[in-house]
Design goal:
Blueprint: H1 2-56, E1 93-107, E2 131-147, E3 152-163, E4 168-179, E5 183-189, E6 215-216, E7 236-244, E8 247-256, E9 262-263, E10 266-267, E11 270-271, E12 273-274, E13 278-289, E14 292-301, E15 307-310, E16 316-318, E17 322-332, E18 343-353, E19 356-367, E20 370-381, H2 386-393, E21 403-416, E22 425-438, E23 449-460
Parallel strand pairs: 6-9
Antiparallel strand pairs: 1-2, 1-23, 2-3, 3-4, 4-5, 5-7, 7-8, 8-13, 10-11, 12-15, 13-14, 14-17, 15-16, 17-18, 18-19, 19-20, 20-21, 21-22, 22-23
Length: 461
């Protein structure tokens, strides 16, 4: 019995020890699980805090490293491991832009009335033919500009044109440098100061925008201070300008083949021969205050005996003497009132040339997208070789004798802006009518009126 009791006591002791050990192991496991949960909670809190700080941080600043343009590569080509890159040099800013300008035209024959141009850059008038056509061009512009902290700057501009005839032309190709709001030097192909602005002109084609083919022999001449302005196909410009408060001073020099001024190289019935290049010097002084501005200028061809024709004795007769003067005044009410302001121009120009003087005056105004203008031109021709003129012009020439001729032109246009809600898409409607009166009978009798209409699509990009 004693042995049995002792055995029961020993069994009871070991049983209690086992239970205590089991409880202690379970508690330890629970503590370990609780610790892991606390660590996980701390990690989630740290991650959330990092996300909050990232959201509060300002957006990253664009890097100044060169821009890389990567082309799409063929997925089947294992040899093309390195994509080609287009990198900018980093010397200043580069701007790429352009515009589309397509025209639908309907016009009467020109037939010697005025030196009408098919387009601003190329092609002469169609003579006795009426015109129904679509023409225009796409311009691509590339401008580079670098400015230093002290205000010094330099840059360039290139503007190739692709026209609907399948040819490539060029508007501007220039290099310039100077100090901002102070002085500037510009060299290349470009237009200098506009001394005969036509406002929102759409279809007064003989205004042109080059220094070439402005004068058509046998046609009336609308002189507009453009002979020394620039953008020539046979030469280039060198321009210096200076700004002092409200004053602007400009001196442009155009060097070119002087006979490029004349269509078919003919003047007063004589065929011109070029001996040396001409040099037009064109100073301009402009003043502006608020909405009003005014400018006075002259342009003079300063090279003697640059071109001319041979007389009956074989002697060269100089025809290269040409000096012009101009004055323009502008009121631009759109500076203070873009919606209802009036823009008005008053222009005058006078040319004293070999055996001819020309005077032109024009006025135009723009209000709420509608433009209306009038141009008067007076040609006084002292000498004209009638024999050569008849042979060269056939029945196309209006002016075949010495004398005075008055040319009148009324032009207008209307702008439809923001077509289809696009701020870069406009449509213009333009029209003009011209007629001439002479102090003697002309070969064209009473057929002295010309007219035309145009729809222009203008899209900027």
């Amino acid at each position: 019995m004693k042995i049995t009791a002792l055995a029961l006591l020993i069994a009871a002791f070991f049983s209690n020890s086992t239970i205590a050990s089991t409880n202690e192991s379970a508690l330890e496991q629970r503590l370990n699980q609780l610790e892991k949960r606390l660590i996980a909670a701390e990690n989630r809190a740290a991650s959330a805090e990092a996300e909050i700080q990232k959201m509060k941080a300002p957006p990253p600043v664009a890097a100044t490293a060169p821009v890389a343009v990567v082309s799409e590569q063929s997925v089947n080509s294992k040899a093309d491991n390195q994509s080609p890159k287009l990198s900018l040099s980093g010397y200043g800013d580069l701007k790429i832009y352009g515009d589309v300008e397509f025209n639908m035209d309907a016009a009467s024959h020109s037939n010697g009335l005025t030196s009408v141009r098919r387009s601003a850059n190329t092609n002469w008038a169609d003579g006795t033919n009426e015109r129904w056509d679509i023409n225009g061009r796409i311009l691509l512009g590339f401008d580079g500009y670098r400015r230093m902290d002290n205000g010094n700057f330099a840059g360039f501009s290139a503007q190739p044109l692709a026209d609907l005839t399948g040819h490539m032309n060029l508007d501007d190709a220039t290099f310039f440098f100077g100090h901002e709001n102070d002085w500037k030097i510009k060299v290349g192909r470009f237009e200098a100061y506009d001394m005969f602005p036509l406002n929102q002109d759409t279809f007064v084609e003989y205004s042109g925008n080059t220094a070439n083919d402005l004068y058509g022999d046998g046609y009336g001449y609308i002189y507009m201070m453009k002979e020394g302005r620039g953008r020539s196909d046979t030469g280039g410009n060198f321009l210096m300008s200076k700004t002092i408060d409200n004053w602007y001073f400009e001196l442009n020099t155009l060097l070119e083949n002087g006979t490029s001024l004349y269509q078919d190289k003919s003047y007063h019935g004589n065929e011109l021969e070029n001996d040396k290049n001409v040099a037009y010097v064109r100073p301009v002084i402009s003043w502006s205050e608020g909405a009003f501005s005014a400018a006075a200028a002259m342009e003079a061809q300063v090279v003697d005996n640059a071109y001319g024709y041979k007389d009956a004795n074989g002697q060269m007769v100089d025809q290269s003497s040409r000096t012009g003067y101009g004055l323009t005044m502008t009121w631009n009410g759109q500076k203070n009132d873009p919606d209802n302001g009036i823009v008005a121009n008053l222009n005058t120009a006078y040319m004293d040339a070999s055996d001819e003087t020309d005077f032109t005056a024009g006025v135009n105004a723009l209000w709420q997208n509608f433009e209306l203008g009038y141009i008067y031109a007076h040609n006084d021709i002292d000498k004209f070789d009638v024999t050569n003129a008849v042979e060269n012009c056939d029945s196309d020439c209006w002016i075949t004798n010495a004398g005075t001729y008055d040319i009148h032109t009324i032009h207008s246009s209307y702008l439809f802006p923001n077509v289809m809600g696009m701020k870069n898409f406009n449509i213009y409607l333009g029209t003009y009518v011209s007629w001439v009166s002479a102090d003697q009978d002309s070969s064209d009798g009473s057929d002295n009126t010309r007219y035309g209409g145009r729809v222009r699509f203008k899209y900027y990009f």
